Amino acid sequence: MKRWTAVLLAVLVSLSMVLAACAKPTPEKVVVTKEVKVTQVVTKEVQKVVTKEVQKVVTPTPLPASAKPVTLNINWGTEPPTADPALATDTTSVDLISNIFMGLTRFDPKTGAVIPNLATKWEASADGLTWTFHMRNDVKWVHYNPKTKEFSAVKDSNGKDRVVNAHDVVYGVKRTIDPATASDYAYVLYIIKNAEAVNEGKTGVTLDDVGVKAVDDFTVAFTLEHPAGYFPAISGMWVAMPQPKWTIDAWGDKWTEPGLIDTNGPYAIESWVHGSELDLVKSPLWINAKSVQIQRVEGVMITEASTAFAMYENNQLDTTGVPMPDIDRVKADPKLSKEYYQAPELCTYYYGFTNNKPPFDDVRVRKAFVQSINRQALIDNVTKGGQLPATHFAPPGIFGAPPVNEVGLKYDPAAAKASLQAYLDDKGMTLDEFNKKFNLTLMHNTSEGHARIAAAIQQMWKDTLGADVRVENQEWKVYLKTIKKDTPLADMPHIWRLGWCADYPDENNWVYEVFNNQAGANRLRRGCVDATCTKVNPLEFDKITEQAGQAQDPAERKKLYYKAEKLLAEDEVAYAPIYFYVRNTITKPWLTRDYPALGGNNFYEWKIDWAAKTAAGG
Predict the structure, then answer these.
(1) What percent of the chain has pLDDT over 70?
(2) Residue 30: which pLDDT band, with cuts at 50, 70 and 90?
(3) Using CA atoms, how far apart are residues 517 and 513, in angstroms rounded to an integer?
C-alpha cells in the first residue's frame, strides 16, 4: 500500500505513504472556502453527460433551515495525487478512493481479515491457480452533479441503470495493467497470468491474454501465475477495482474531476479545490446508505502537523495526528490525554539510497551511513511517539517478517567510520574531497516531522562521519515523481525518505513488491556498477523473493523471506530502515472511529454525536 506507507494523521502517523509514505501540507493560515471555481466550470461541461446518461434523478431531502448535515472535518494531510484507482500509489489517494469506490473485497477494520464487499463469496481451484469471485448484483453506478446537488443513477444505452458487474472489474484490472495507463502500481497485479508481460510491453501477448475474465455478468475469474493464498486481499485493492469505462472514454484524464466522475461507493466528490480543500457528500443511492450517518466529509489539505493540531484544539478538525513537540503535553493533559490514541501500525519509515548513483553505488558508503544512525536516540529525542527501531523492512504482524532486531545493521559509529575510511582509502580521496565531489543530498516530502527527522540524521552523519549532507524538500505530488525509478539519475537525490504501509499482511507485499529488481517498484535502483559490488549479487535477492512468493509451504516461505531481509539489509545494505510506525492520533469525544491496520480510512463507518459536536462549536 502498497499501502507502498496517508492516513489522516500528523507527521508521525502519516509519515507513511504508498506508497507509501504520506505527508501533510500546511498553509500558515487555513481558509476554508465553499466557492469552487473549478467545480463550477466542470459542472457546466458535465451537463452533456448527465442528460444523455441519466434519466432518474434523486435529490436528497432538504434539511430545515436551522439544521446542518452531520459533517466530519478532517485533514487530508496533502493534496491527494489522484482519485483514479489505476494510478494511486499513496495512502492519501487510497483514503479518497476507498470512500467513493468499492472493491471485490475489503479488510475488516478491527481484525484485518479479508471480508466480502462487491463479492459475496469466492473460491480457489484445486491447484490454487484460479480464483472465482461471485458478485452482488445491486450496486449502482452513480453520478453526482455538484451544481444542482443531485444524485442520479447512471443509465446504459438501453436506458437501464448501470449496475457494477464483472465486466467493469475486468476493464478496471486490464486498464491498470495496460502500459498506456502508466500505472506505477501495476506490479501489484503481476500475480495475474500474463499481467507482467503485458505491462512491460513484451511481444506475443496482449491485454486479451491477461488472466481475468467475466464468466457471466456477476462472476469474475482470475488465473494466476502461481498459487497465492493472499490473492483475495489483492483482488480488493484499488488497482483491481471496477472502473467506469464510459466516463473514462468521455473525459480522458479529467474523468475524476467533480461533476464528471461516476462512482459506486458511499460518497461522491462534491468539490475539489486543488491544493486547498476536498469535500465528499453521502450518496443516497449507495447500497448501504441507510447505515451511513456522516452526510458530509469536509477535508482541508494541511501539510504541517502543528497547524492541523491547532485547528483540532480550536474544534475545526474532529481527528488528527499529534505533532512530535506536542506528544508529551498531550499525554500530560487531563483532557487531551483522554482523546489520545497510540498503537503500532503496519508501516516502516526508511531512507532509500539511489544505489547506482555515486558514492552510494558502493556498499561501503551505504553501510557507513546506515550504521551512523542512532535510531533509539532519534525516537527518544525527536519523534517521541513510541516507535520501534527498525533494522529490517517488514514490521511485526506481517507474515514472514523476521524477529525485531535479529536482522540488519545496528548503530555502530566505529564500524561506520571504518567503512567510509576504507572507501576513501581505496579511492585515494580525503573526506573534504569526498564532500566537495559528491555534494550529497537528502530529500523528503514537505512536512515538519520529516524535516525534524532529516535534521537529526543529517547531524548524526556529520558528527560520526564528517559527511556534509544537504537537505531538500518537495511537495508530495512532485516528490513522488522525482523519486520514480525512471527519473534521470542526475535528477535523483542520493538519499530520500519514504514510508511503506501494508496493502496486505504478507512479506510478498514488502521485500518483493517494493525492492525486487524485476517485478517490484525498485526505487532503490539496486544493482552493481563497479568492481566494489562483486561480493553483492542483487540477482540472488530477486530470485529468493520470487521463490518465496511461489512457495506453498509456510515454513519454507518464512525461511526464504528471512534470508531475503538479511541480504537486503546486511549484504547489499540497499537502504536504511529507521523505525516501525506507531499511530499517535487524537480524536474528539463526539467522534467514534476505528483505526484500520490495512486499507483506507472508512469514513462511512464512523459516527458523530452531532448534538455534542454542535454544542461544543465544532
Answers:
(1) 87
(2) very low
(3) 9
Query: In the structure, what pLDDT confidence band is assigned to residue 13 with cuts at 50, 70 and 90?
Result: very low
SS3 per residue for 473-492: EECHHHHHHHCCCCCCHHHC
| Number of neighbouring beta carbons within 10 Å of residue 9 | 30
How many whole angstroms separate alpha carbon 121 and alpha carbon 104? 9
Tell me the Cα Rg of the chain.
Answer: 24
Residues 6+ apart with CB under 8 A from 549: 191, 226, 228, 508, 512
Backbone angles phi, psi at 407, to 5 degrees: -125, 140
Q: Tell me the average pLDDT across 247-253.
A: 97
Which amino acid appears at position 213 of this protein? K
- Check if the beta carbon of residue 447 is closer than 8 Å to that of residue 305: yes
Q: Report the alpha-carbon distance of residue 394 to residue 375 in Å, rounded.
A: 16
Task: Write the CA distances from 203 to 103, 182, 206, 470, 519, integer angstroms.
Answer: 31, 18, 8, 44, 17
Q: Each residue of 205-217: b (16+ CB within 10 Å) or e?
A: bebeebbbebeee
Question: Tens digits of per-residue pLDDT, 473-508?
Answer: 999 999 999 999 889 999 999 999 999 999 999 999
pLDDT reported for residue 508: 95
In whole angstroms, give the CA distance from residue 599 to residue 496. Answer: 25
Sign of the alpha-carbon torsion through 399, 400, 401, 406? positive
What does each C-alpha distance from 377 to 60, 453, 469 come to in angstroms? 54, 11, 20
Q: How large is the average pLDDT for residues 508-537?
A: 73
Tell me, yes or no, if the pTM score tops 0.90: no
- The alpha carbon dihedral of 262, 99, 233, 20 has a sign of positive
- pLDDT, tens only, 146-161: 999 999 999 999 999 9
Q: How confident is the model at residue 537 (pLDDT cuts 50, 70, 90)?
A: low
Enumerate long-range contacts of 462-468, CB under 8 Å, 24 or more apart. Answer: 464/372, 464/413, 464/416, 464/417, 465/368, 465/369, 465/372, 465/416, 465/417, 465/420, 466/431, 466/435, 467/369, 467/420, 467/431, 467/434, 467/435, 467/440, 468/435, 468/440
Is the C-alpha dihedral spanning 551, 556, 561, 566 positive or negative?
negative
Q: Do 546 and 516 form a contact (C-beta atoms < 8 A)?
A: yes
Residue type, 580: F
Grid cell 494510478 is found at 87
Which segments within 277-318 are labelled E, that is strand?
A: 277-282, 296-300
On the question of pLDDT at 264 being above 90, the answer is yes
State the fold for domain 345-582: Dipeptide-binding Protein; domain 3 (3.10.105)
In contact, 295 and 69? CB cutoff 8 Å: yes
Mean pLDDT for the stretch of residues 550-566: 96
- Decide: 579 and 267 in contact? Cβ < 8 Å: no
Q: Which bin fits 466, alpha (ψ -120 to 50), beta or left (φ > 0)? A: left
